[in-house]
Design a protein that fits this description.
alpha/beta; six-stranded mixed β-sheet; 2-enoyl-CoA Hydratase, Chain A, domain 1; 258 residues; four-stranded mixed β-sheet
Length: 258
Amino acid sequence: MTDLLKVEYQEHTALITIANPPANTWTAQSLAGLRDLVNELNANKNIYALVITGQGEKFFSAGADLNVFADGDKGVACDMSRIFGEAFETLANFRGVSIAAINGYAMGGGLEVALACDIRIAEEQAQMALPEASVGLLPCAGGTQNLSLLVGEGWAKRLILCGERIGAAKAEQIGLVEEVVAKGESLNAALALAKKVANQSPSSVTVCKSLIQMGRDGSINSALPLEREKFVALFDTQDQKEGVTAFLEKRKPQWTNG
């Protein structure tokens, strides 16, 4: 495991905390840690559910640190998109029930990890967005596919293509989250729901989950590798370089569509 990712066990539930202050950003190390941890949980017959949340009160996760992409290195982009995909696809295929306790801002890869979970519970002050196109990138860790599956094509296009940010109430209205709770209560609510999973047959849960998700497999399995391929291809564009540079320089980007 890594210091950027904490895990503790409560009866049949594994609680995973993203712990990379100030914004709980993902790194290659923490993503690999998540992938490996979920694989370990799959092999642990005593674990029926997992809950993932963010450390602190402000951020669930702000996604990737854009400094990683500042020099426009396609090799880095390829490596990061691969490990993002491995981590979140492993999470999506967890044999038990996964619940995201969204305790604050869930942006970019921070929202994508929640999208990879089975159920999302958000606190009333939480804000959610997939702003990658605003810096010349795209959500490459399942965002274009999982968001569409949850909220439909129209709202997926509003969030991804228009860069719209939404609060918890709107997220619940469009089906992005299943429940909204008071500030500071998402973890308690998620753990209480996870505890209910112990009342179910673990074998039945695994089979039922696979059947529920079967309808998406035909298209999403072919779309996910393409999503990462297109992410890396963006590093051939001037807009990608301008987007990341402008963000880091705290100025408005000047797009050239090239």
